[in-house]
Amino acid sequence: DVKVTQSSRYLVKRTGEKVFLECVQDMDHENMFWYRQDPGLGLRLIYFSYDVKMKEKGDIPEGYSVSREKKERFSLILESASTNQTSMYLCASSPGTGPNEKLFFGSGTQLSVL
Amino acid sequence: SQQGEEDPQALSIQEGENATMNCSYKTSINNLQWYRQNSGRGLVHLILIRSNEREKHSGRLRVTLDTSKKSSSLLITASRAADTASYFCATEDSNYQLIWGAGTKLIIKP
Hints:
The structure holds two protein chains of two kinds.
Chain A: E1 4-6, E2 10-13, E3 19-21, E4 23-25, E5 31-38, E6 42-49, E7 56-57, E8 64-70, E9 73-78, E10 87-94, E11 104-105, E12 109-113
Parallel strand pairs in A: 2-12
Antiparallel strand pairs in A: 1-4, 3-9, 5-6, 5-10, 6-7, 8-9, 10-11, 10-12
Chain B: E1 5-7, E2 10-14, E3 19-24, E4 31-37, E5 43-50, E6 55-58, E7 61-66, E8 71-76, E9 85-92, E10 98-100, E11 104-109
Parallel strand pairs in B: 2-11
Antiparallel strand pairs in B: 1-3, 3-8, 4-5, 4-9, 6-7, 7-8, 9-10, 9-11
């Protein structure tokens, strides 16, 4: 089975801190995604990557950056955390290029920014 | 931007009953997918239906797609307590982007 592992289940940070969220997948998937999930809003795409060292902005990239130095690892960086970035962050991966026919998700990181 | 909209937002039924959730979307799609999310966890892919398909089954799940009405429904038959979760639809548009709805929260009462 595909496994997508997010480094932290819960994280508490202070306003202004630099925050790193790590995601690793073990099935050689080409595509990786970072979403945030807020009550009543569903999933919103922050960034995605179709290949190593490649990144594309999603719907809400402001205040975030990403890094994909290796195929299996996709990191989300909050340059200067703010309280409105308190959210559940979900990493996902999918195989191949083109159609995203099945995403595999990590368990999520609940981030609280105080 | 959000395209899929699930209906109802919340649904509470007795164990053993059938649960039906609906998803509407706005633009043409390649496929429509349903995912389940248990409380505070990641999403799990349930089923995918392509734009040229009308109905698909997987175990106790039945999905229909009506492209003329731009809508889909997910039916869970003979519900169990373990089906308690939030259910999301995601539509893939012509640019291969996935667009998610806000979800239906399903509660199965014992």
